[in-house]
Design brief:
374 residues, alpha/beta, Nucleotidyltransferase, domain 5, seven-stranded mixed β-sheet, 13 helices, 12 strands, 21% strand, globular
Length: 374
Amino acid sequence: MKAIGLMSGTSADALDIALIEISNTDVKLLEFREVNYPGELHKKILRTIHSTTISLEEIADLNIELGKFYGESVKAFIENIRLRKDEIGVIGSHGQTIFHRSKRYTGKGATLQIGDGAHIAKITGIPVVSDFRMDDLAVGGEGAPLTPYFHHFLFKNREKPLMVLNIGGIANITVVTGKIDDLIAFDTGPGNSLIDIAVCDLTGGESSFDKDGTFSGKGNIIEEMLEELCNHPFFRIPPPKSTGREDFGMETYLNVKKRYGNNPPEDIVRTFVELTACSIHDAYRRFILPHYPARELIVTGGGSRNPTLTEALRKYFAEIPVKKIEDYGYRSEAMEAMAFALFGYKTLFEKEGINIPGATGAERRVICGKISLP
């Protein structure tokens, strides 16, 4: 069975498209593309994510515009690799997160991903499964993280326990144990979110992320800023828990800029990198180590390509081998899109729940996602 997965992360810099082949025991990546958003569409997405006064009309319009963009992008992708649409069983689309609020942290959970699945299905002629997170919320979960099911699927046959760390806009960690029901997973805090926002602002929009650690590699840690950020109450809350840009986004950055803006820009970016690394290790020390001393840490996501961040992680996790997902034959940038391709397949064809109660806090596993037929 071939399936396509779509992922647009919190940085909203591109749409990831992954074509996978699924067997009972493994998934194989066949093709992968990153499709950049056109300039005006990219601006709309960022404005919607960061604004607190966006109108309902703008959200409704963007939901359809993204659905059409996703559909046309997949159609072009299929034509480019010379596949027929009837060779693909399903498209699993994560959509674009424009809001996420943790139930565990705030007492009232909510999440919203846009990019209408019906438009994708009608344009491509392929069944689409989208809006995966809401089913988990409906049974008391956080709606995040969902990728732990995928991590377990990939590494269930390796020596355990091991940890898979995904550093996207938000960082989340999965502890793969013997049984899926024993799995521990949660958001640890900021991944690239604050780093990306800082770089974008400090370069006047010329750069949207810290490519190759260009900025952070030249900077020094601002100890007072780091200590202040490490006191965020989210870090002390036991899992399961999730977070988003509502906690570690534009508002946090603007507060930092107001207090520490007289420091060199590279120092601010470097301190955000250190915050990501030390909060990940703090989460391990507080919530994982007492139960599962891990044998190795496998890093994936955009943050794995930042050498300043990976070096900081190796410093904190000196007692554990820190490896990259590429060491196991997978492509870091494709992992989340691959996950949602698998999730679409599991929902449409196997009717299997992909939410893990130990990760999201849900009452039970449920079939996730809304099905749109062509």
